Amino acid sequence: MKRLYAILLLLVLVAACTDPYDLQTNHPDRVYLCVEAPFTSMPLTQTVRLTESVDYQSNDDVPAVSGATVKVSDGSGEWTLTERAEEPGYYDTPAGFACVSGKTYKLSIDCVLSTGKTGHYEAESELGAPGFDIEKIDYKYLDFSGEKKDSTWTLCIWGKDHPETHYFLISTAVNGVLAPTTSLLERSMIMPDTFFNSSVVKGFPIAYLYQNARQYEKYGPCAKFLETGDIVSIVLYTLSKDYYDFVFALSTASSSISVPGLSSQPANIPTNIKGGDAVGYFAICPVTISSRVVDDPFRTELIEK
Amino acid sequence: MARKTGRILINKIFVSAVLFAISLTVRAQGNLRPVTVSGYVHDKSSGEAVIGATVYVSDKSAGTASNDFGFYTLTLKPGKYEFVCTVMGYEDAVMSVDCSNGPAKVDFLLAQGRRALEAAVVYSRSKKDALVLPQMGLQTVDVTQIKKLPAFLGESDIIRVIQMMPGVQSPSEGSTGFSVRGGGADQNLILLDGAPVYNSGHFLGFLSMFNGDVIKNAQLYKGDFPAKYGGKNSSVLDIATSDGNKNAFGGNASVGLLTSKVYVNGPIVPGKLSFFLAGRRSYLDVFFPLIKRLPQGTKLAFYDVNAKLSWSINDNNRLYFSVFSGRDKLGWSIEDLGLSNSSMAYSNNTQSIKWSHIFSPKLISSLSLYNSMYMGLFDCNMKDTAFEWRNNLNETGARYHYSWQTGPHSTICFGVDGAYYYLNPSECHPKDGNSAVVDVVSPQTGAWSAAAFAEHEQKAGRLNLRYGLRFSTYTKEAMANAGAQTYFGLDPRISASLVLDSESSLKAAYSRTHQYLEKAAITAGGMLDTWFSASSVLKPQISDQVSLGINRNFMDDALECSVEGFYKYNQNTIDLKDNSGLVIIESDPESQLRSGLSYAYGVELMARYEFSKVNGWLGYTWTRAMFEIEGINDGLPYRSPMNHEHAVNFVINWDISRQVSLSGTWLFYSGAPMTLPVARFRFGSSYVPIYSSRNEDQMPDYHRADVSLTLRSKRRVADERWSGEWNISIYNLYSRHNAWTISYGYNEQKKCLQAYKVYLFPILPSVSYNLKF
Q1: Would you call B625 an interface residue with chain A, using a CB distance cutoff of 8 Å?
Q2: Is B185 in CB contact (< 8 Å) with chain A?
């Protein structure tokens, strides 16, 4: 649907012309703290990334916020995250840090921004239960050209959706290599369970794999071209409604155009970071994974029924 | 507290005014033994009823206007009178009648004449009527003159004329939607021969669905609604189509850049039964294969058909049957994405039957039955995910209205309305067994509405008063997950004019309206717009509007000036929430909406001039329209996206000779409110803007000049059987790059993000030829 929407935009804009336009707003330069903290139920090193906002038309990259004190607690224990020496702004939990279902976690950040302003920021998140039981998955090659030149696969899913409405972020892994946590949005998609709510699902096409040199360069081994013997996985994150709203808003807000009558009103995306001018999200998601070995990378039909 | 006190005060004023008017009526009736003069006003050549013709006694002691059926009634003291009938586009007709011995019937046959070339495009009945009548905010469009104004892509359009009036604004460049006094497009009640139209746009909204060839009369109420109208809060646009020539066959055909159209009309039973049939079809998509940037198989086409039968059964009965059918389709294929022959489409279909019956010259009734169907369709043929999405809104209703002249200067209108609505906001189904899409159906709704109204118009010396009451009820039927929901509305309407002298008057009005259907606009041209019913979640929108104005004529009425101020307060206004999703794929579309308050206030100035060969108007509007909705903009007030604070409209029409006319328009308005990014942050590899408050900033100011030249063949002037007319128009004469929107992209030279002003139409010449036969 989103793709079709983009096509409609294209059709409307095809006759349009553009002139550079100087943004003139009455707002003083404000600097926001940006918090990326997508934790999961998987026993991994969880990462918090802290950056600052920049002027909208600035050609500077966002500066990392270094030297911050970042802590996570669950009411019974507290962990101080360690900033990576070689990557300022990245703060890691100890290895194998797994969040426990039903527990509420609290993130606290104390930092000094480049403006000299000190700040204390907090956020809370609870690890819920998965919304979908994956039975199995299968894949098929999308041979658009008919000449096996393409590099896209569809991953289909079998399983049972739990009652009530759930929201998912669907990501993929190849040979156990996940998309980088902070690149989750580029290699994944989000959806509510509208299409299969509370039902048994058989062969629903839930994800696409884009595996080519350009993707590989950007995302690493998780984007390698599939070969026989590779293991492909679906990584299903169950999102809370608030986190889904955040990710949905994030995916639409990064679109670069607003069209009268076509686009919804621009608005700041929601955040659960409290304590001043801050954006971003601290979320903990339960994760379900199912994998399959690639028998023939150019197979265009599903084997599973 | 202040608002509550204000409402109590308004109620007290209303009750006092009613009592005062009743006392005037009693006094007036006690002093007179009147006779009634009535009759029809018809076009001499076609036999068509003429709407809005002014019939008055030559000494100007009394006068009235013909109604929708061309019928008029005057109540006078017995005596001999000379009556004058005058209307825009026709020669005046004068008749002397002896009314000493009782009621008289006086029919007028008006010949089209030179006044048609000298007429203004917009007028308010007659100049004196506009001065005297209590009605405020009414603009009548003389559709015979629309073709003189500059056309967009060769298509003259009634909505573009309406957009040039004070208080009316286009939502965006090129759009034929319109906003009245800061209201939303869904707050405009658009009636075509009495049937409501739910999407009036063609061609992604750049053209309206109203074919100028078939329109006989159009009236726009910007506030101060007569009690017979209800259901929408911002405006009423009441369009009547022509009846067809009762005496001879004829028609016209035209060819433009965008469309071709044909109109034929004539008698079936001469003098009794007539018809017209009109059709229009666009053909721009023929050229699409030449545009390489467009996806393969792109189609963008529309058509519409109008037809009408008009039957003059006898002197006291008229019957009309009118139908309209229009459809737009946007289609494309992108084989690389596995997408083939997909399309978005929408259609409007209306049918109406109207029966006009004259019980006596003083008592006239009008019974109308109508049906209106709007449907949106999204046919997606994508590999593995083929689906069909649709939404529907059907309305079937009836109106039974009476007009009763109770005295020389007293008329009571009353009647009842009823309608049934079927709403299907969103319905999505897979197209075949291979599709991954499953059924997603939002709750479908049935609803009933009923209304009764009564209104009295009374003249007493220099004071003219109109007051009425409209009672409405609306019931949304029970659904699987919710019980039935019923709402009631009581809408007082009152307006008054005080004639200061022969050249000036003061006017004031108050009206309340209830709106039970509302729209979430999500796509250009309304292709996927979704209508919602009032429900337990979405309460009916309630609007209170107060107007105050002064009218003054100068230079022997050649220059008419008016100043009108208004304040409008709306409850339960809806808007899409922050970061809303696509309404059309939500199983609970209402969840994407929020409701709250909105208010608007402003001043409208109008100076209309009409000299021997030059006419037009200059208008200025200052408006401020605000929303205040919980859950949007942190609950703080924000400007309506329709709020262009300053607007100037200038229209000039110069009839150089009988063969040549030159017209020009100039439009200015402040940039529309918008939300700009003030900073950006990075999340993953995505850059995400941080915005100012909603609509805190604004687009660049908009201004544009259009000109047109109309050339008529001499044979037309000589009333030959065949004649032709060329219209050459230039849209955006000085090619200003008016912003349609602001977009953002990466500037390779500056190596940074850059804002861009997107504009649609630079200078745009067009030509059309109209052949009349």
Answers
A1: no
A2: no
B205: left (phi over 0), alpha (psi -120 to 50) or beta: left
Separation CA A279–CA A54 (nearest Å): 13
Q: What digits encode the pLDDT tens for the residues B426-476?
A: 888 888 877 767 777 778 889 999 999 999 998 888 899 999 999 999 999
**Residue B523 in this model has a pLDDT that exceeds 60:** no
B171 at A interface, C-beta within 8 A: yes
Measure the CA–CA gap between B573 and B518, rounded to whole angstroms: 9
Please spell the DSSP secondary structure of B294-320, one letter per residue: SPTT-EEEEEEEEEEEEEEEETTEEEE
pLDDT tens-digit map of B93-111: 888 888 887 788 888 988 8
| Interface contacts (A, B; CB < 8 Å) | 234
Residues of B in contact with A53 (CB under 8 A): 679-681, 690
With contact defined as beta carbons under 8 Å apart, do A204 and A156 qualify?
A: yes
pLDDT value of residue A210? 85
pLDDT band of A264, cuts 50, 70, 90 = low
pLDDT band, residue B25 (cuts 50/70/90): very low
Calpha distance B743→A18 (Å, rounded): 9
Give the amino acid at B401: H
**B751 has a chain A CB within 8 A of its CB:** yes
What's at A3, amino acid-wise? R
Q: How many CB atoms are closer than 10 A to CB B535? A: 18
Tell me the pTM: 0.81
Please, what is the average pLDDT of chain B?
84
**Which residues does chain A have within 8 Å of residue B692's beta carbon, measured at their own beta carbons?**
25, 27
Decide if B754 and A16 are in contact by the 8 Å CB cutoff: no
Is the CB of B691 inside 8 Å of chain A's CB atoms? yes
Q: What is the pLDDT of residues A145-155, one digit of tens each?
A: 667 777 889 99
Alpha-carbon gap, residue B153 to B713, rounded angstroms: 22
The whole-number pLDDT of residue B412 equals 95
Sign, CA dihedral B288-B289-B290-B295, equals positive
User: How near does any CA of chain B get to the CA of A252, in Å?
Assistant: 8
Flag whether pLDDT at B667 surpasses 70.
Answer: yes
Compute the CA torsion angle B741, B745, B750, B752 (nearest 10 deg): 120
C-alpha Rg value of chain A to the nearest Å: 21
In this predicted structure, the answer to whether residue A5 has a pLDDT above a threshold of 50 is: no
Q: Is A249 helix (H, G, I), strand (E, B) or coil?
A: helix
Q: What is the 3-state secondary structure (H, E, C) of B153-217?
A: CCECCHHHHHCCCCCEECCCCCCCCCEECCCCHHHEEEEECCEECCCCEEHHHCEECCCCCCEEE
CB contact under 8 A, A13 and B758: yes
CA distance B289 to chain A (A): 13
Nearest to A34 among B342, B587, B683 (CB): B683
Higher-pLDDT residue of B290 and B674 is B674
B565, B552 Cβ separation under 8 angstroms: no
**Are B424 and B392 in contact, with CB atoms under 8 Å apart?**
yes
First to last CA, chain B: 65
Residue B380 Cα, gap to closest chain A Cα (Å): 9
Residues of chain B contacting A265 with CB distance shorter than 8 Å: 575-576, 578, 580, 641, 675, 694-695
Q: What is the ipTM of this complex?
A: 0.84
Question: In angstroms, how far is CA A45 from the centroid of its own chain?
Answer: 17
